[in-house]
């Protein structure tokens, strides 16, 4: 289940877009519209499969770790600097060129963690395990 959550986070809007396209294709009135939706669906499914396949390799996680670990260390230092008033570490803000990928890394870490926690809580309620 965690893999599905991680894939959904990394693929971004691919899965929700595919779901909307499937519904629109079923609601399409003529064959021309259905073919148009089929082409868009095929492209997005290929993108989803490529991302999923890439995530199964060790090099993906190695490169992801090269970005996530330093960013996590920076974030931890910012939290320590913020929470402990007598320690002034002088941590600079992230440059604007790094901010977009930093937001992506933060989202992939926290959203997948929150998603996994939510799924675990729901599964424990229905499955009887805690």
Question: Secondary-structure map with pairings?
Answer:
Layout: H1 2-11, H2 14-27, H3 31-55, H4 58-83, H5 99-127
Structural write-up:
The chain has 130 residues and is mainly alpha-helical. It has 2 domains: 56 residues; 73 residues, no CATH class. It is 80% helix and 0% strand. It has 5 helices and no strands. The longest helix is centred in the last third of the chain and has 29 residues. It is elongated. The model has no long low-confidence stretch (mean pLDDT 76).
**Rg, alpha carbons:** 20 Å
The number of distinct helices, counting runs of at least 4 residues, comes to 5
- SSE ordering: HHHHH
* Head-to-tail CA distance between termini: 17 Å
Measured by DSSP, the beta-strand proportion falls in under 5%
Q: Into how many domains do the coordinates divide?
A: 2
Assembly category: single chain
Helical proportion, percent range: over 70%
Number of strands: 0
Shape: elongated
Q: What average pLDDT do the residues reach?
A: 76
Q: Which sheet architecture does the biggest sheet show?
A: none
Give a concise summary.
With 130 residues, the chain is an all-alpha fold.
Provide tags for this entry.
single chain; 130 residues; mainly alpha; 2 domains; 80% helix; elongated
């Amino acid at each position: 289940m965690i893999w599905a959550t991680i894939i959904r986070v990394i693929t971004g809007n691919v899965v929700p877009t595919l779901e909307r396209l499937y519904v629109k294709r079923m609601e399409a009135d003529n064959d021309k519209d259905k073919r148009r939706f089929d082409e868009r669906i095929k492209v997005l499914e290929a993108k989803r499969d490529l991302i999923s396949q890439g995530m199964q390799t060790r090099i993906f996680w190695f490169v992801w770790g090269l970005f996530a670990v330093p960013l996590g260390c920076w974030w931890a230092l910012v939290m320590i600097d913020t929470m402990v008033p007598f320690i002034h570490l002088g941590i600079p803000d992230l440059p604007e060129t790094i901010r977009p990928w930093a937001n992506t890394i933060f989202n992939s870490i926290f959203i997948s963690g929150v998603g996994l926690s939510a799924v675990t809580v729901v599964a424990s309620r229905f499955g009887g395990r805690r």
